[in-house]
Amino acid sequence: MKVTVIGAGSWGTALALKSLQAGNDTILYCRRPEHATAMLRYRENREYLAGVTLPPTLKISDNCRQAVNLADVILIVTPSVYVRSTLMEIVTYIRESATVVLCSKGIERETGKRLSQVADEILDKVTDNIAILSGPNHAEEVGRNLPAATVVAARRLATAEVVQRVLNSGTFRVYVNEDMTGVELAATTKNIIALAAGIADGMKLGDNAKAALLTRGLHEMTKLGIAMGARRETYAGLAGMGDLIATCMSKHSRNRAAGQKLADGMTMDDIVTHTNMVVEGFFAVAAVYEKAEQLGVELPITSSLYDVLYHQKAPSEALWSLMARDLKDEMNI
Ligand SMILES: NC(=O)C1=CN([C@@H]2O[C@H](COP(=O)(O)OP(=O)(O)OC[C@H]3O[C@@H](n4cnc5c(N)ncnc54)[C@H](O)[C@@H]3O)[C@@H](O)[C@H]2O)C=CC1
Ligand SMILES: O=C(CO)COP(=O)(O)O
């Protein structure tokens, strides 16, 4: 198959390598010509995935039309805030009925739409073969060929199965799932819990507190998912519990690291200024908080983070407010 990856950040680069390994003719499209030139010169993405060699068979291009025009499968791997503008840019070049796979983790803040809904809106006349890819997948490990599993969701199983066959290889096991809503929302909300996990690490709250946070975090993720039409079981899968564990425990997670910096007293603006990498949780907290308010769903951890990020509440104060909430039945949704 001809596969084009849009977005040469760390995850786009790792996915392009997986596609190549699975035997596809693969192009990594890069928006900035100077970044494409550097990757071609060094055969390495020094800016976002240093230390991983890009084989000569991986095509690197800064020509959007050429990269998109002939592709059977297009992976969109930009930060979620750029998914709409990226789709608007490529829509005129996409082949009819091509498969478009959204690999970003987030929802659109302005509209509260899931990324697949944004894609439906923009690609309406071109293709309805739209899929979502998510799972416990840090680019630093996938790019170094360590074994990993992921899940692809689509409205029609056949669409997800195309992507499964295209990306599966000996080191990257691809599952399918028909619950697009659940996979997308789990991918978005686990980043919020990872920020909180980073705060817990930064405050040295211990393993018991972190385990409680992940468990109640998964409950909160599931609660929002069910309110928005997701299946509960998806949250026990790779995109739910799997990615929650990977992101909350990993030294690679930018969201967890950002939480740790919040606990050390840095503000969200300071953190964003000091990194070229995306911290999706920052966008997700605001987008999910607003969505939950509209739906009347109570999300205590998300609301606490909203106060920390947007109302300068001290993380310690947010923690003690969470501990002092009304007593509950664990299983109440
Ligand atoms: N890094 C990882 O391990 C994983 C990341 N993801 C998701 O993939 C998405 C992309 O993340 P990363 O590859 O980590 O990004 P990154 O933080 O490594 O790189 C930032 C990316 O943003 C792009 N960018 C900056 N300004 C842009 C604009 N105006 N328009 C389009 N693109 C622009 C850059 O070219 C670069 O590709 C995110 O939604 C992230 O949550 C998902 C799984 C794993
Ligand atoms: O989604 C990811 C791992 O599955 C990447 O997480 P971070 O953005 O926190 O690094």
Can you offer a commentary on this structure?
This protein is of the alpha/beta class and 333 residues long. The protein has 2 domains: 2-178, Rossmann fold, CATH 3.40.50.720; 181-323, Orthogonal Bundle (N-(1-d-carboxylethyl)-l-norvaline Dehydrogenase, domain 2), CATH 1.10.1040.10. 50% of the residues lie in helices and 14% in strands. It contains 15 helices and 10 strands. An 8-stranded mixed β-sheet has the order 5-2-1-6-7-8-9-10, with helices on both faces. Strands 3-4 form a two-stranded antiparallel sheet. It is globular and about 55 Å long. 51% of the residues are buried. The mean pLDDT is 97. NADPH binds at residues 10-11, 31-32, 48, 105, 139, 254, 278, 280. Keywords: Cytoplasm, Lipid biosynthesis, Lipid metabolism, NAD, NADP, Nucleotide-binding, Oxidoreductase, Phospholipid biosynthesis, Phospholipid metabolism. InterPro entries: 6-PGluconate_DH-like_C_sf, 6PGD_dom2, G3P_DH_NAD-dep, G3P_DH_NAD-dep_C, G3P_DH_NAD-dep_N, NAD(P)-bd_dom_sf. Sn-glycerol 3-phosphate binds at residues 105, 135, 190, 243, 253-255. The active site is at 190 (proton acceptor).
